[in-house]
Write a structure and sequence with these properties.
Two copies of one chain form a homodimer. By secondary structure, chain A is α+β, with helices and mostly antiparallel strands. Helices cover about 30% and strands about 30% of the residues of chain A. The first copy, chain A, has helices spanning about 1-10, 20-25, 30-40, 115-120; strands at about 15, 45-50, 55-60, 75-80, 85-90, 105-115. In chain A, a hairpin with a 5-residue loop joins strand 4 (about 75-80) and strand 5. The interface of A and B includes residues 51, 77, 91, 94 and 96 of A. The structure holds a DNA duplex.
Chain lengths: ~120, ~120
DNA sequence: AGTAACTTTGCAATACAATTGCAGGGCATT
DNA sequence: AATGCCCTGCAATTGTATTGCAAAGTTACT
């Protein structure tokens, strides 16, 4: 079952929500899906994206992520026209300088706008 | 009532969730709060921050935001130790280069780690 | 002051995502 | 066969976000 989920995720060009997966992969219980994703996330296989649409979305981790840390610091793009979220693996998140005594562990950059498909 | 909310927000050093406000400002109905914040947001007085904690948080807009666009592109810092979210108004979000035909309207950068208070 | 029009507020109820508890099924090891 | 472990699915709960509606307040006009 997990293989099916992984398979499905690999086919996606964009990040998908739990509900997306639930609808596309019937029959599959939402809770199982939830736990599957959670397991994947804990083991560094997928990353979670909060795009402001209300629901978390998920996508396969490209790089050398592990259970302790996510390393693929790419930008996510949320299209406010089609409501889809894309991973932009080639666009890296720049370092940021923080005030004294702040320790950065992760960073997430979400760009919102209109995606290539919707600008046509 | 809105003045009270605005007042409260101005006093905050960190971003607050609806629940935070509800608890701090009794008696005040959650729905009224929700709509108040929504109005503020639409008029560019506050900005919404999704820090991955599950609930949206809000903070006063520092700069020249208006109903059409938010202009204060500062970084937000989420401390995974104390679960608080801080605005870092001095840390600007750098421009990012997008693939062809992507149009950027907004960008949000969340850094996660340990805040100054928690590193002590 | 009186009233009509509009706005703001609060209660109730709903929608939806996230999460937990529990029991059954599969599979491996002994 | 019995034990133990993990995966799955159903039911139920929590929590946030949101809407509908009616009452209370506000404003503008007379």
């Amino acid at each position: 079952m997990r293989l099916l989920v992984l398979d499905f995720l690999e086919k996606q060009s964009k990040a998908v929500s739990l509900t997306d997966m639930e609808l596309s992969m019937e029959p599959l219980d939402r809770v199982t899906l939830f736990r599957t994703i959670k397991t994947f996330e804990e083991h560094g296989l997928v990353h979670r994206i909060e795009d402001g649409s209300g629901a978390s979305k998920f996508a396969i981790c490209a790089a050398d992520c592990d259970s302790t840390q996510h390393h693929d610091l790419h930008v996510h793009f949320y299209c406010s026209h089609c409501n889809e979220t894309y991973c932009l693996p080639k666009t890296h998140i720049p370092e940021v300088e923080l005030p004294a005594n702040y320790v950065a562990l992760e960073r997430e950059l979400i760009v919102k706008g209109i995606c290539a498909a919707c600008t046509k």
